[in-house]
Amino acid sequence: MRKQNSSFQAAFLSEAGGELENNDYFACVELDQYACYVIADGLNEEPDGESARLAIETVLLAFQEHPSIRRKALLTYLKSGNNALAKAKSRSRLKASVTVVVTDYTHIRYACAGNTRFRMYREGLVKEQSLDMSLGRELAGEGKIPGDALARHEERNNLHTWMGQGKGFRPFVSKKIRLADGDILNLYTRGIWENLDEGELGDVFSEAKEEPRECLDNIEDMLLSRQPERLENYTFVSIFVNKVFTDPNKKRRLRKILTVSVVILTFLIVAASAVWILYQQRVKRTEELDQKLSGTLEYIRDNNYIRAGKECEAALETAEKLKDKEAVERVTAYLRLIEAVNQADEEYGKQEYGRAREDYMAALERSRQADHVGAEYINKRLETIADYLAVFDHIRLGDSLAEKLDYARAEEKYLEARRLATRIYFEEGRREALEALERLYEAQAREEAERDAILQEAAAEEAAAAELVSRGDKAFAEGDYEGAGLYYTMAEEKYRKLADETNTELSGAKRRSCEKKAKEKEEKKELAEEHLAEGKAREEAGDFAEAKKQYLLAKEIYTGLQEEEKIRRTESLMERLEIDQQEQQREEEKQAAEAAAASPAQTVSGNTAE
Predict the structure, then answer these.
(1) pLDDT digits (tens, 9 = 90+) for 263-309
(2) Alpha carbon distance 518, 489 (integer Å)
(3) Are 13 and 235 contacting, i.e. CB atoms less than 8 angstroms apart?
(4) For residues 385 and 357, is the Cβ–Cβ distance under 8 A?
């Protein structure tokens, strides 16, 4: 019935101004119990209006699901819009400035993110207005720029909060504001406030009647008459609160409150009597508590923490019956101290000195919270433990040095541990120090034996490496570059294991030289094979002189390479070539003789014919 028994009249104007499209958006939902008005200014560079539309749709949907004027509800509406814009699939990230007004027709509450604005007028005066969430507004608030210069300042649109921001989104939500008949609520975007100042807007609404349309027309006429160089999208929403809802059950609720107050007063009189009786009991228990606390402190001074614990538990039980919070806290502090000391004493008795020190340190902290009771006893225990642990620290440090083979310094630490343990009568520490010394001397003896063995092994390895180098040198001199390379490789590996960098590098250089020589040898072999192939081709063509030349070139190469088998093979080819050449020469001589013999006979025959 709230909406029917109130009168809220809303009107708006929204234009693209000098832009191609309008990125501003306004929408509202008026329910029976609540109404929600939302204005948005899209901040995307591309003029598609998607940011403002999606922001308002999301906010209004969230409002319709759970309509409320509570602060937490408005935060939920704005955060829903922020998440929707941040997660929207678009060519660019969606952003918008948004202002929301929610009313229950008696009160309003507004919320904003960005630099869209809200202003409320009452009797022609500004009753409430929002503040931009921009660097420009912060500068104006600090007095660094005049307030009337904000509309033209370069930082006016440099926002620290806007819808679509994602993480770090911190919108502003106002307190609940009571409405009065005749109030005027205005929402508008930067296209308005960048071109019209607050005084001009105030003049329009100071003379407003019960219908908002005339005011909107006046504002638009005034805006367009300015003819700004660049007029962005502008939107102005005006809500005239002509009648506020009045609750008809208000008097009935007041009578109910009065009746309840009388009942409560009667109850208080009865309770006062009971309190007097309880007070007498409390006095008696307080005396009992003081007695128990006194006994607890006496046992602590006598270092009898077991009896002190029993007395303190009884004192805590009395304090809890009194329901005296301060007394319970004080007695609890004593009890925790006693329990901590008993725990530390138990660890100390087990010779768990590390844990005992931690427990005594905790007990000392408890003592500070319990008027420093028992601090002297705890400090003495800590001093004793410090001496004991110093013995163990020397032993551990000696162990560490021994692991690093620093036996001289390790021996010093073990001897220091033994001297300290003897001085403070710490028999266990003294025994461990002596055992550590025995282990140290045994380790020294083992290391010396191992060192001798390692030296002998290294000498043998070095001799083996030298032998491999010698074999490699011999093979290299004989032209066996592959074998020499193998010997040098094995020698290089042994020198590397011995960490002999000089001989490692020398062996590596010899190995690389062998590889180079082997490559050159292979190339010469290929060249010799080419000469042999060319010689065979020439021989088959009957060019014995050129064939012999190619065979000689191949033989020269093989001779340089000391390839005996190849030399013999080439000589065999040359011998065969010589035989073939001699046979050819004999055949040519034979043919010449036959030709000479036939020539005189032909002459005689010719003469006879004549």
Answers:
(1) 788 777 777 767 777 777 777 777 777 887 788 888 888 888 888 88
(2) 14
(3) yes
(4) yes
